[in-house]
Amino acid sequence: MQTLSVLIWVLAYSLSLIHITLFSVNCYKYRIKIELFYLIVLLNMFVLTATVTVLIIFNRNHFYPILLNSLLSLYITLPLYIYNLFGVDKKYFKYIPILVIIEAIFENILFLKGYYNLIFISRIVFYFILLIPLFISKRKKHEKGTLEWNIQNMTIKTAFIIIAFMAMLAPLQNFFFMKPYVSSLYWAVFTFAYQIPGLLYCKNRLFSSKKVPKKDSLSILSKREKEVSLAICEGYKYEEIAQKLFVSLSAIKKHSYNIYRKLGIKNNRELLHIYMEAQKRDII
After folding, report:
1. Residue 10: how many CA atoms within 13 Å on its side-chain side?
2. How crowded is the C-beta side of 186, counted as CA atoms within 13 Å?
3. pTM of the entire structure?
4. In angstroms, rounded to a whole number, what is the distance separating the alpha carbons of residues 54 and 188?
5. How far apart, in whole angstroms, are the C-alpha atoms of residue 46 and residue 20?
6. Contact by Cβ (8 Å): 56, 47
7. Which among 158, 194, 215, 249 is least buried, having the fewest CB atoms inside 10 angstroms?
8. From first to last of its 284 residues, what are the pLDDT tens digits of the chain?
């Protein structure tokens, strides 16, 4: 059992590092904000899992403050990522730090009082409250196959895996975790499992032989980049676009560079082709 646990941990951490590396390459290549948010959450999850590993090896209670600090970082970055991904109204963002502070104080009180089982229940209630804005706020609907739809789909699959493992945690902790290495094996399998949707997303994003669908391409441009790209397609020169949009020439050149990089194109002819295809599909 010990050998199996060690092997799964090695595989789990290897996948975590590969996952982080691929998403870092992805963020560097496309520089899309929502993917950067996911990378930050992924790094937080990695730190949290490493902390849990330390807790398993050493005294759990002694290292609980370290675990709480790791969780606090995740408590903030995860809701920010989810709210941005699903287009939650900005007015709900201000409640995140308030709820995190309340939860941190409450968890510390429960820890000092020795009510360890209630901490787990407290976290469930905390996340339930954080998810309420997803259901009461108007959310953006994305067409199937677009970048936003793909990353939402990946996030939902990852969430289902995490929820499933958390649901199994309470019964397993009471009956099976008392056996040697079972707890370590459980968290190793958990670490391995929640990486799978993200790794598949990276594979499709970075290593697919097919180019990004045209309808997906335009959705990754910012509002200003769309304005610049449309002006380029209409035949305006950079100097004319700068005057038209009341910005500097250097800003237009920077936007142009970002447009070509994000769309994976090299010239205005390819950009015009993308816009013509988009107009056929009524995407613009």
Report:
1. 6
2. 22
3. 0.69
4. 13
5. 9
6. no
7. 249
8. 567 777 888 888 889 999 999 999 988 877 778 888 999 999 988 888 777 777 766 655 556 666 666 778 888 899 999 998 888 888 899 999 999 999 888 888 888 888 877 887 888 889 889 989 988 877 666 666 677 788 889 999 999 998 898 888 767 766 666 666 777 788 888 888 999 999 999 988 887 644 444 444 677 788 898 899 999 988 899 999 999 899 999 999 999 988 887 787 878 888 888 887 776 554 44
CATH hierarchy code of domain 2-206: 1.20.1070
**Cα end-to-end distance, the chain, whole Å:** 57
Domain ranges of the chain: 2-206, 214-280
Distances (CA, A) of 166 to 56, 160, 186, 205, 268: 17, 10, 11, 29, 51
Residue-level length of the chain? 284
CATH number of 214-280, picked from 2.40.50.140, 1.10.10.10, 2.40.37.10, 3.40.50.11310: 1.10.10.10
Is the CB of residue 131 less than 8 Å from the CB of residue 78?
no
**List of E strands, 51-206:** none
| Cα(177)–Cα(186) distance, integer angstroms | 9
* Spatial separation of the C-alpha atoms in residues 87 and 138, rounded to whole Å: 8
**Where would I find the beta strands (DSSP E) of 28-153?**
none
Report whether 53 contacts 187 (CB < 8 A).
yes
The residue among 218, 221, 209, 194 whose CA lies nearest residue 274 is: 218
